[in-house]
Input
Amino acid sequence: MSNASYGFPTPSSYGVRNLGNLEATASTARVLNLVSVARDWSDTPEYSAQPFFRSRILNTALFVKHRLRRDEAYVLTCENQITTKIILPLHREQLELGGQSVMLDHPGWRETLAEVCGEGSDLKHDVNTLRIMNKLPSFDPFLLREHLSRHKVEVAACYFAISPADVERMRAFVGAEVTELITLAFGDVGASDPEQTTRLVSALLSTRIDSKLEPLRLTFGMTPSAFSEGVFSWKGFLYYKWSMEDLRPRIRDTLVELGELKLHRPCEPDSVTYVNEARVRIRRAVGRAYSAVNRAMGVYDDAFRDLTVNGNPKAFREFLISAPDMFLALGETMGALSHIASFWRFRFPEGARIEASGEEAHEILRDFEIGLGERGGPAAGSFAA
Output
């Protein structure tokens, strides 16, 4: 069937021109890649026992968090500025060929899915899962898993792996983080062996829990099932710590450039007033977001220090058990900060002029304020003449 018969755009029109590049370089938080999950896990019992979607078509698709453009906001009915784009590859083994797409909340999106996937009770379940996913600001694996679980949607752990691109960027950070732990679990010989560190980091960043981590399980005194859940939580905080280290300089640059933003003339006085006031509110809100993230990370650091310095595994074991309760707030905060840095650099590449019309600047800053939990000011164009 052609793209046009479903009202789909052509592969080059939805902003992802090469799905192969998307798979290789995209952040885990932006893309949920069920194509790669199927490729790596489809022959395992857990993949089939607790699938993400019951529709085979949806369970082998890509899902991208999409920031709405101004022209799209008029035809979509979603409550916020981020929605989910479903990309159905034309060929799962040749993603460079592109695919068809449908956007959640676009008029007729559910009917389109019914036509593509087939109507039935399973689709009702899948649509419910899509609606739950769509409420999140990102596909952060730890945030997504906890959010689904709270809505009674249980999905196998293999669906929540960190993307290859993020794994490679995290390796050095995690290696430095766990050096003291290797000494505790494996002794001085293990700490002096680079291969020991490499094996432990690979095991921690993998979805599979294997015998390489058995000394740590014994150190924590946890059952295999509790340890498996605990490692997921631990990996989550390592991911967030790494993400925050990567994010801080980008946020700093964004705030500096935000102060340098110039508005095209002529410009309505109300727009100038809003932009000047929003700069202050955004800086203040980013400071509060940093404080919230630091408090959460402090809980992890204290528990980890008690384990590695004092040799007391109890506090860290209790942290691992309770950590999922912290993921929603932490993940949403990290998602808001990440969006600010990413969108700003997309709109104002390095070396570009930091200038915009009053209306565009208003829309950008209002979007940032909403993401950070600020009131966001009136919508662009709503000021009195």
Q: What stands out?
A: The longest strand covers residues 82-89. The chain has 16 helices and six strands. The radius of gyration is 23 Å.
